[in-house]
């Protein structure tokens, strides 16, 4: 399976996914805090999933987290396989 993805830059994909995960989570929490403050002043009740774009931010955070973890695992597996190949060449 790793041989099929041999030329994919898993480190870059993991890094980009982390950036998307970080900022989407930060935006999700920040908007919830702002809306909670406004709702507290007006006596309303707010939830983190009131608007469609808040749900979209949450889903984006989940998908980018899964992508980050998967690409990091593939990155580590790719490095381990490369290390095994270099050790076999040195032993021969």
Mean pLDDT: 89
| Global outline | rod-shaped
Low-confidence stretches: none
Beta content:
under 5%
Instruction: Provide the helix percentage.
Output: over 70%
Quickly count the helices. Answer: 2
Q: What sequence of helices (H) and strands (E) makes up the elements?
A: HH
For the largest beta-sheet, the strand count, sense and barrel status come to: none
Kindly name the structural category: mainly alpha
Question: Could you say how many structural domains there are in total?
Answer: 1
List the helices and strands and how they pair.
Blueprint: H1 10-42, H2 52-91
Can you describe what's shown?
79% of the residues lie in helices and 0% in strands. α1 (10-42) runs antiparallel to α2 (52-91). The model has no long low-confidence stretch (mean pLDDT 89). The chain is mostly helical and 92 residues long. It has one domain (10-87). It is rod-shaped and about 75 Å long.
Q: What labels would you give this structure?
A:
92 residues; 2 helices; rod-shaped
Write a brief structural summary.
With 92 residues, the chain is mostly helical.
């Amino acid at each position: 399976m790793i041989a099929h993805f041999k030329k994919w830059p898993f480190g870059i994909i993991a890094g980009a996914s982390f950036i998307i995960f970080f900022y989407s989570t930060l935006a999700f929490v920040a908007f919830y805090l702002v809306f909670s403050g406004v709702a507290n002043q007006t006596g309303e009740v707010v939830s983190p999933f009131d608007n469609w774009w808040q749900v979209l931010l949450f889903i984006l955070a989940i998908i980018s987290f899964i992508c980050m973890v998967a690409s990091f695992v593939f990155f580590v597996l790719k490095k381990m396989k490369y290390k095994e190949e270099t050790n076999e060449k040195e032993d021969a």
